[in-house]
Amino acid sequence: MEDGNMVLKEIQTLEGHSDRVWSLAWNPASGTSNNPPVLASCSGDKTVRIWEQTPSNGLWNCKAVLDETHTRTVRSCAWSPCGKLLATSSFDATTAIWENIGGDFECVSTLEGHENEVKSVSWNASGSLLATCSRDKTVWIWEVMPGNEFECVSVLQGHTQDVKMVKWHPTMDVLFSCSYDNTVKFKKMQNNVEFLVELQVWAEDGTGDWHCAQTLVVTLLLYGHLLLMLKETEWLPVDVGGMQSSNDLASWIHLPREYVSLIKFYLALLVTKRDEVIDLGFTSMRTHNSFSCSVWHHLCTLSGYHDRTIFTVHWSREGIIASGAADDALRFFVESNDGLVDGPSYKLLLKREKAHNMDINSVQWGPTDTRLLASTSDDGTIKIWELATLT
Amino acid sequence: MVSGLINANPVIYEKKQRRVRRASSVGDDEHAIEPIDQIEFEARFVRVFIFLTFLNHIRDIKDPEHPYSLEELKVITEEAVEVDDDNSYVRVTFTPTVEHCSMATVIGLCLRVKLMRSLPQRYKVDIRVAPGTHATESAVNKQLNDKERVAAALENPNLVDMVDECLAPSYA
C-alpha cells in the first residue's frame, strides 16, 4: 500500500434516523455470495435500523426499524458471531436481544440489572457470552443459555467511574473494558477446558467384521454448555442438538459424510457426560493454555492527526486503521516500514476532511475482504465508503 | 430553592448596556472590506449578527439558584465568549460565583443547551470554567465536554426542567 494511490469513494448516505447515530455493527454472517451485506445502526432517536445492500443495483435500503422497545438513546449494538441475534444497549439501563425471524426482528429477551445508562455491548468469539457496561461503573458478563435466556455470571467492579466500552478479544475469552476513569482493564474467563479428542471410527467391511476405518484428532473446547471445535485457527461453535447442516461438521474435520452422525453421537456424549469422557474413549484431555496477562505493552501513539476528540478507531483485516473524530474527519493509517528498530510505527495513508457535517461517532470495516467502511455521525446519517486503489 | 443555597449571598453586578460589538475575528480585518464586494460584506454582516445574537442569548440565562442572570452575577462576561467563525468554533469560559459551586455543571449544561439551540449545527463548542475558579476544575471541564454524559443528562426530565427554567424567556 503506497501513499497517494488510494482513494476514498463515498458510496451512499443512509438517511432515516431523526437524531444522532451513535454506533453501527456489520452482520458478520452477511456479505457472502448468498447474503448481501447487512448492518445495524443505533441512534439518539431510540431506534435501531437494519440496512441491507440490494444486489441488483448496489444501493442500500432500510429493511427494518426496531422501535418501541428502548425508551431512551440506543448507544451500542452488536451482532452475535452467527449473525442471528442482535444485542442493543440503551441509556434506559437495559440491553435488548433481537432475533431475526424470517426478516422480521423480534425482541426475544431484555437484560436488566444495570442501575443506569448501558453504554456498550459485546459478544465473545463463540457467541456464548455477552458483556455490557454502564455509567454505574460495573461490567456484567451474561451467559447465553438455551431458549434465548441470559444469565448474569459475573459483575466486575474494577472501575471507579463510568465504563464507556467493552470489547472481547477476537479469538480468546478475554474481555477489555475502558472507562471515564482513564484506565483500560481486562478480564480473563477461566472456566473453559480444552480437549484433544481422538475418535476412532469403526466400519463394517461387508463380511461382518468391524475394523477401525479412521482415527481423527479434533480439538474441542468445552465452555459451560457450549462446545467449540478448533478449525485451523478459529474456534467455531458446535451445536450438538440442532446442527444446521451435517455438511458443516464434515467440512470442518474433513471426514466422509457417513461418519458425521457417529461423531455427533460422540460429541453428544461428551457434552452430556463430560465427567466421564475418559471412559468414553477419548484419549487425552488438557487444560486450555492460559492467556498471558503480562504481554500487553504500549507500542506507539498516533497523535496530531485529528483536531478534536477521537471517538472511534477500527482495524481492517489487512491492517488499515480507520479513525473518526469530532473534527468531522476520517483518517486512515497503515504500518510503516520505517523505523522498525524501535518496533512498528504507523503512517497516515489517507485523510478525508468533512466526511460528515458533524462529529463522527463510529467507523466499522465491513465483514468481508472488500474495503467497505461505514461511518455514523451526529448529523443523523450513516455513510458507506470504499477505500479503492487508483489504477 | 429556599434553603441550602451553594452561594447564599452572591454579588450582583449591573447589566451591561447592550451595544453593537463586532466579533474579533471579523473586526481585525474590517478595513480590508471592499465596499464593492457586496456578497462578502453581507456574509460578514450575518456572522456579526450571529455572534451578537448568541452572546445576548447566553448572558440572559438565569442562574440555577438565584433570580439573576449569569451576566448580573458575572458568571458570564462579553470576554468570556470567543468565536472563530472561519473554523465554526466557539469557546465559552464561565466563572462560578464560589470555588465549590456544585451548580457549575448545571450552568455549563445550560450554556451548552442554549448554544446547541441557537447556533448552526456546524459549530463546535467547548465550555470550561475559568482557570483557577473552581476546586474541581478539570473534573467539571471533563464532564461538560463529554457528549455522552451531556446526551444522557438531556434525557433526564428533572435536569431538563432545571435547564429549561434557566433558559426561560422571562429573563431575556
UniProtKB/TrEMBL annotation, chain A:
GO terms for cellular component: cytosolic [4Fe-4S] assembly targeting complex. One of its GO terms (biological process) is iron-sulfur cluster assembly. The keyword Repeat applies. CDD domains: WD40. It comes from the Eukaryota. Pfam families: WD40. WD repeats lie at residues 14-52, 67-99, 111-144, 156-197, 353-391. InterPro entries: CIAO1/Cia1 (IPR028608), WD40/YVTN_repeat-like_dom_sf (IPR015943), WD40_PAC1 (IPR020472), WD40_repeat_CS (IPR019775), WD40_repeat_dom_sf (IPR036322), WD40_rpt (IPR001680). Keywords: Repeat, WD repeat. Essential component of the cytosolic iron-sulfur (Fe/S) protein assembly machinery. Required for the maturation of extramitochondrial Fe/S proteins. Belongs to the WD repeat CIA1 family. PANTHER family: CYTOSOLIC IRON-SULFUR PROTEIN ASSEMBLY PROTEIN CIAO1-RELATED, WD40 PROTEIN CIAO1. This is Probable cytosolic iron-sulfur protein assembly protein CIAO1 homolog. It comes from Salix dunnii.
From TrEMBL, chain B:
SUPFAM superfamilies: Fe-S cluster assembly (FSCA) domain-like. The keyword Protein transport does not apply. Pfam families: FeS_assembly_P. Signal peptide: none annotated. Keywords: Chromosome partition. Residues 57-125 form the MIP18 family-like domain. InterPro entries: FSCA_dom_sf, MIP18, MIP18-like. GO terms for biological process: chromosome segregation; protein maturation. It comes from the Eukaryota. Belongs to the MIP18 family. This is MIP18 family-like domain-containing protein. It comes from Salix dunnii.
